[in-house]
Amino acid sequence: MVEKQTTGHHVDRSICAWFWHQYNHHRNNDQMSVVTSPTHYLFPLIRHGIIFLACTQLELPPLLPIEFLSRFADILSDYLCAGSGAGATLNEDIVKDNFVIVYEVLDEMMDNGFPLTTEPNLLKDIVLPPNLVTKVLHAVTGNSSPSVGPTLPHAAASTVPWRSTHPKTTTNEVYVNLVEQLDASVNRDGNLRRCQVYGEIQVNSSLPGFPDLTLSFTNPSLLNDVRFHPCVRFRPWESSQVLSFVPPDGHFKLMTYRVKELKKIPIYVKPQLTSDSGNCRISALVGVRNDPGKTIDSIIVEFQLPPCITSADLTSNHGTVDILADKTCRWSIGQIPKDKLPSLSGNLVLEPGLDRLHVAPTFQVRFKIMGIAMSGLQIDKLDVKNMPANPYKGFRAQTQAGDYEFRS
Amino acid sequence: MAPPVSTPKSASPSQPSGKSEVTDLKLQLRQLAGSRAPGADDAKRDLFKRVISCMTVGIDVSPAFSEMVMCSATSDVVLKKMCYLYVGNYARCNPDLALLTINFLQKDCHDQDPTIRGLALRSLCSLRVQNLVEYLVAPLAAGLKDHSSYVRTVAAIGVLKLYHISATMCHDSDFPAALKALMLSDPDAQVVANCLYSLLEIWTQDAANSDEAAREIETLYGKSIIYYLLNRIKDFSEWAQCLVLDLVSKYIPSDNNEIFDMMNLLEDRLQHANGAVVLATIKVFLHLTMSMTDVHQQVYERIKAPLLTLVGAGSPEQSYAVLCHLHLLVMRAPMLFSSDYKHFYCQFSDPSYVKKLKLEMLTAIANESNTYEIVTELCEYAGNVDVPIARESIRAVGKIALQQYDVNAIVDRLLQFLEMEKDYVTAETLVLVKDLLRKYPQWSHDCIAVVGNISSNSIQEPKAKAALIWMLGEYSQDMMDAPYVLESLVENWEEEHSPEVRLHLLTAVMRCFFKRAPETQKALGAALAAGLADNNQDVHDRALFYYRLLQYDVAVAERVVNPPKQAVSVFADTQSSEIKDRIFDEFNSLSVVYQKPSYLFTDKEHRGPFEFSENLSNLAIGGDSGDDVIHSAQRYEENDKDLLLSTSDKEENGGPTHNGSSTYSAPSDVNSSRSLVSSSTTQPAAFAIDDLLGLGVLDTPVLPPPPALSLNAKPVLDPGTFQKKWGQLTVSSSQESTLSIQGVASLTAPQSLIKHMQNNSIQCIASGGQPPNYKFFFFAQKEGSSSFFLVECIVNTASAKAQIKIKADDASASDAFASLFQSALSNFGSS
């Protein structure tokens, strides 16, 4: 438990115990995002099993602490996990091993309850992240270099606070990644009730100097609503729908957007349930509709067995079916084979006394399509100005299922 | 807003524990303290880390304080940071030892490296030890003039910390003025933001005691500063932008051009990646256009898309907070969102509190064009695995039915629910069908045919059972076997645990008796006998009442129990529009999430408890008033809680039943006059009784308004009744008036105004607040009449303005009362 008292008003630690009790108590139910305790209002934020908690007694914009906490969580995992290999996520042990870093970062990020420096690039100049270099240095010389930067960054005074004045990388490349999340719900008659796409443009830039980038789309009119990273200039977007920006160093989210009212979905599930005299026959078919032209990967169909079911016997002609501890049935399909349609069938036994199944489970589908953005958004070109040499530019696109559900 | 990171508590082996650990650390630290050996710094670093981790897991390592300070003379930055952290944590409990740290902290404040200067200054200000403040002033003053912007940002916040330790010291050193100068001139946006933050907090707290501070606050909201900040808004960090936008939302522009300029300037903020900025901008927009209806509507159109994106794109925590705001907007202007209904469809993976909000929104935006789609969607939820949500969605269908004109399709749907044969679906649907029939009696034929097939044995829930029994009684002429069903229910009287059901049963049997006497007579006798023997006081009383009524005159009894009914046109709203308006004013705050105005949940802790004057009847007897008020103005915590409870109750019940009358205002009795009953509780008992009987003699004899309004000198009203009335009545008059200068001067404490108003026959029931804002609840009674006037009066001594809201039983006299109240208020201080 790391705590930071920000104002003169002392918050007792017991509040955490109280919250912990509540949290365990409600674990199975839903957790509210603002919790009222007898003395404070708490904002919990749960990431990778670690709970970040903010307390207040005053009225304040609720998004302020929530946004701050999520920013803090992002930065912390950026700090602590970058050194320990790709794919590592924040966990209890990492935090425990790095108490000091956590305090140092928190100290810079917030003073007296008011957020201070939250740009990762700036922070890294003030508090050096624990990385491989310092570890090696420590092992070799036996004298660890201070984890504090020798000088202060002066980007704080510059016009682009998100970019430090001395970027360390000179690999001279920039990657643009389009990641889309497809939400769809289909009702029991097979009609598409709604379908929309949330997308993100992630950029990983390692360009020297002070590059000026312009990203344009072939079909920007598609976008329904957009939100930008602070580095994006607003005027060019308004006048000609291009993104003009000076990128921060490293990974960042350039833009998030929403496209609504899509008419096509790539995958369908046809569930069928018939029940009578204590038994319920279940069958489900999965198939491709409106072939996106790329392979659909890691397809998983999940549904929750209703509590009134005592036992289930399910088989499929492709992939594996597991019933997890919380009565979730997971059917991992992977890719759809060319020659047949994957289907699941089986029998559910209802509780004694129940004749028919009254509740209808919802089938949730997860999948991934590489190389295509389902919304149809396409990047036209990326211009880089203000650069001595032409950098390498990489583009990727990917669609994955968000809330993609079929009701039965 | 301390964000401590709490990790699951598990006893990991690496976790140090116990006292011996601390003494051990102490020993090692002492050994290292003087050492200048080459490896000493590393050894110290390890030790410090252990101390810090002990501190973090909650072991008290303060005994090692002096050793830590001894070790702190170092040039290593990491060591310094850890030491600052330790000192900051324990200085408060070791004020004497903290003095030891001052020396090296002060030295560090003159270090060459700005990082160290800043860190030292921050730690120095965070010590929070009263007797050390004198050492703070010089480093702070130097820090504010430092050439490094980093040190200046730290110093700006440091001033605020100093203020919290010792306000006088802060003022004596003239720091606020220095901050203001810095704010208006500094090239670094973060410094400006921190100055603004500190100044706002300092002056807001000061405004209570000094006019100067109040004036300074006014200048912060003034045109020049707002413009200065707005022009730099893009330089600020996102958090500072939130602060500035919050300030801007309190600024009142002088003309429309100004409004449009500001909106144009801020429009791109709506596309900021940070949700907090987006919401703050929306608040500014809404406030700016409050007076321009058409532009206000356009603003709604403009903010719709960003809000919907925020809901979908963020983490679950973020999207809930945004959804609450969206909920508020949807409730205010459902028409504008009617085409976006698909966004409010529930996802399977949504947590149930989100689903609940979405259902409410779907209910609100349903209109002629989208009802079919929405109801179809809602019906799918009825089969949801999540039972509470299935119930909620059935209720939502019912609510839509009640607010629509074309209910044909919906009634069919509801009746289909009854055929699903799921007990909770049937239960919810029955309650809805009952409400529906009260509004649309013309559907009775269709409904009754289906309801008649439901076996009363299969229904367990009291509410549903009561609804079914009500329908049996009400439509007994159309249901063949109604008397026999009722009879079998009466036979099982003993097994019926809910008094509500028994009450309904009594009434239903009575009704049935008047329609089909021969078949019901036996059941009625049994019911009355069982009712008279019932343990429940209400059931007993009602049985006795019916019995005597029948004894007295059967015809009268029929008129009482079975009066001709008119359809209910509007069901009472659950939340008064006043509260809704207030929440709207507090957009982008917790109020929205809690769906309560902030004074209901922050007042008790921060603005001082509401003081309820001791029961006013005592006062009236006690004669002379002033001193008594002060003595008896005790904290009425319970009442305060009641205030909280009453609103939340209202929200939950979703119906207009009041505690006092709930037993009698069961739908069977007051069907015809339900909406009237709510006001009847405000009438004296005699009228209330008439009303409860449903005789329709509701019209309180309204006295013709006397030429000049005279007030009862000693009215009596207890706080509970006051609250109830306040909740029921609508604002009949709302005004703003100005206090005289003498008035403001003499309003140092609420009691002075209370006494003054009492001399004018206006009694205070509750008061609270801290300067400059006071809040009073007054009441008065018309001489020779039962009608009360209730007043909420918010006085701001800084601006010498008073906001008055008047609610009156007798709205016709409220204008006369308003002028009387105003003149009394403006006389305040001059007498």
How is this structure best described in words?
The complex is a heterodimer of chains A (408) and B (831). In chain A, 18% of the residues lie in helices and 40% in strands. Chain A has helices spanning 14-25, 63-81, 92-97, 99-109, 120-126, 132-141, 234-240; strands at residues 35-36, 41-47, 50-56, 110-111, 114-115, 173-186, 192-206, 212-217, 225-228, 242-245, 250-260, 267-276, 279-288, 296-304, 309-316, 320-323, 328-334, 343-350, 362-370, 379-385, 392-407. Chain B is mainly alpha-helical. Chain B has 43 helices and seven strands. In chain B, strands 2-4-5-6-7-3 form a six-stranded antiparallel beta sheet, sandwiched between helices. Mean pLDDT of chain B is 71; it is low at 1-17 and 604-707. Chains A and B meet through α1, β2, β3, α2 and α3 of A and β1, α2, α4, α6 and α8 of B. β3 of chain A pairs antiparallel with β1 (5-6) of chain B, so a sheet runs across the interface.
Distance between the termini of chain B: 47 Å
Radius of gyration of chain B: 34 Å
Structural class of chain A: alpha+beta
Mean pLDDT score of chain A: 74
Largest interface: A-B, 117 and 109 residues
Helix % of chain A is 10-25%
Distance between the termini of chain A: 45 Å
Mean pLDDT of chain B: 71
Tally of helical runs of chain B: 43
Summarize the main sheet of chain B.
6 strands, antiparallel
Spatial extent as radius of gyration of chain A: 25 Å
Instruction: Note the beta-strand portion of chain B.
Output: 5-15%
Portion of residues within helices of chain B:
55-70%
Helical region count of chain A? Answer: 7
Which stretches of chain A of 5+ consecutive residues score pLDDT under 50?
132-158
Please state roughly what percent of the residues of chain A sit in beta strands, choosing from under 5%, 5-15%, 15-25%, 25-35%, 35-45% or over 45%.
Answer: 35-45%
